[in-house]
Amino acid sequence: MSDPRYLILADGDFSPMTSKTANSIIRYHPERTVAVLDRQQAGRTVQDVLGFGGAIPVVGSMREGLALGPSDVLIGIAPKGGQLPSEWRAWLGEALDAGCDIWNGLHNFLTDDSTLVAKAKAKGRRLLDLRRPPADLPIASGLAKEVDPLVVLTVGTDCNVGKMTAQLQLTKKLNDRGIRTRFVPTGQTGIMIEGWGIAVDAVVADFIAGAAEWLTLEGSKNADVVLVEGQGSINHPGYSGVTLGLLHGSCPDAMILCHQSTREYIGDYRAAAWLRIPPLTEYVRLYESIGAAVHPTRVIGISLNTYDLSDVEARRACDQAQRETGLPVTDPVRFDPAPLVSAIAEERERYLRRRKAL
Amino acid sequence: MSDPRYLILADGDFSPMTSKTANSIIRYHPERTVAVLDRQQAGRTVQDVLGFGGAIPVVGSMREGLALGPSDVLIGIAPKGGQLPSEWRAWLGEALDAGCDIWNGLHNFLTDDSTLVAKAKAKGRRLLDLRRPPADLPIASGLAKEVDPLVVLTVGTDCNVGKMTAQLQLTKKLNDRGIRTRFVPTGQTGIMIEGWGIAVDAVVADFIAGAAEWLTLEGSKNADVVLVEGQGSINHPGYSGVTLGLLHGSCPDAMILCHQSTREYIGDYRAAAWLRIPPLTEYVRLYESIGAAVHPTRVIGISLNTYDLSDVEARRACDQAQRETGLPVTDPVRFDPAPLVSAIAEERERYLRRRKAL
């Protein structure tokens, strides 16, 4: 079976910060991406828009995109609230007509749209609603604290700061060092990249921690280290409930705090917001005290996202965060991830010694 | 239109601590309750089982219950995970045949059961799924911090410690003092009692805070004080995400901490559990620091549930909690709610002065 060929929909919102799902797919599977559809950026290359991704074209219509022969159409933006723009439905119909499967990570499910369902059935194509939660999730009961591997959760100062990207970089490097490491996807983009997982923000609220527990148990099979994808932020006015349910359900032994260096307000990658991002040390205190209320845990490193800084500024940002927190700091995309890889490897040694002593 | 007449289903689980929904309906609407169905307690009165509720009979079969002429059957227990016991479906069918509407607060929706739906339709009766969330909930954006009334949220040391009951008592007393006070139901029992609300534990996880925001705005109309019903606990391994989403979405100006005096472990009203309940001062610290990360707030009083203590022991428990925390303490069901009523009234004065000074 040949590799899939993706046409990524990011109409009106393709940019380094807003089209998070599109950008991550392109970062980890550029060879599978045939084009991005965005009428605003049409005619440019992905490299022009994102600063990576090479010559992949940005097209201005579904017709142009389908002419490039994709096998799948991926919805690559995650608008606030997760609603599907209404004019996209017609495009998705064209894509089904052209023989594509559709990957959807929004809260609005395509399999609830009778027109699309009928068309997909007639064409023998699949509508993949990645945020549709499995039935019969458990209420969390602390099982995740009993798993054998070291569990590391990324936590953030806001949404969309690079929690998933940090972990995908670290997963690769830890495996390169011979430490069997599994990444556990908890959001639609991670699920698209890895092919499994649960979007914990889409489960019924009582089952957030239960979903996190199930994922952690699943990710612990044949692993030395489990890296659980974090979501949101403990002080995000809209999403903090998801963040805390994930923290308490996955029972991490350690956390990596992720931050975008230039961000000043919660959510300001979209619009001016009201809540100023407090110092990193305040986040360390909050995450450690609220996490330890269920399972002992501590922050062992800081992952910075410095995409909009010069190399010199980025290095300075890392140095400053290190002085502030006393913790290892790097931008694992831009610089060597080694400081965080070593922090996790050393934490695993301590963890094994503690368990042996019990 | 005459008052409804409830037959409450609590089979196998009717007791002072486990059948929370049943007990609250009986406490606030005893005149509407014709019987409770529980085969284990059949033949006793509600007074025998709960210590309140008078001569309302406990019956041992749906047939006996229906013979008393109820207009509605209420599902009065909330089993872990919210699943409907399978043998109850047949009973609900009998109830529909007898002309009753069904009130259901579980996560399992009766309107998803085609057999019951068909029967209800044929009989012209209603299946009321109180946990079915409204469509198009918003993502929270901090609107609740702008409302005119003082917003007070109950927070707890665990589930099922008396958060709703405390507030219903306080709502009445505050209104008696001439302070226009509205109770905002956030769970199925509160919705049954008040006739409106959203079960925030049943919404899609991304919308917990949005639901809390909507409820707070709705409750703020024509009110001086809004008492938002709390859910779960900030350190509950299964439900903390709901607790935090509700805290950040409702932006309370003040909190009342609720605790059951004799409880030692999270969830131990059901079974031995692993997480010891920390001191009340630790809860005050956790709730204030995590709450203030979004909107300034503080704990202004402690509500104790002392149902299983003698009067002397209960008084001693209140005195001890007061010494520990330096806050006003009472059991608002057993003793005079005045200490908490005054704490809220005084906080409202301070709140009005602060707003005037701005």
How would you describe the overall organization of this protein?
Two copies of one chain form a homodimer. With about 350 residues, chain A is α/β, with parallel strands linked by helices. Chain A contains twelve helices and twelve strands. In chain A, helix 4 runs parallel beside helix 5 and helix 8 crosses helix 9. The radius of gyration of chain A is 20 Å and the shape is globular. Chains A and B meet through helix 8, helix 9 and helix 10 of A and helix 8, helix 9 and helix 10 of B.
- Mean pLDDT over all positions of chain A: 93
Number of domains of chain A: 2
Share of helix of chain A, binned: 25-40%
Count the E strands of chain A.
12
The CATH class name of the largest domain in chain A reads Alpha Beta
Count of DSSP H/I helices of chain A: 12
Shape of chain A: globular
Order of helices and strands of chain A: EHEHEHEHEHEEHEHHEHEHEHEH
Key terms:
homodimer, 358 residues, alpha/beta, Rossmann fold, 2 domains, 6-stranded parallel sheet, 37% helix, globular
Question: Would you summarize the structure shown here?
Answer:
With 358 residues, chain A is of the alpha/beta class.
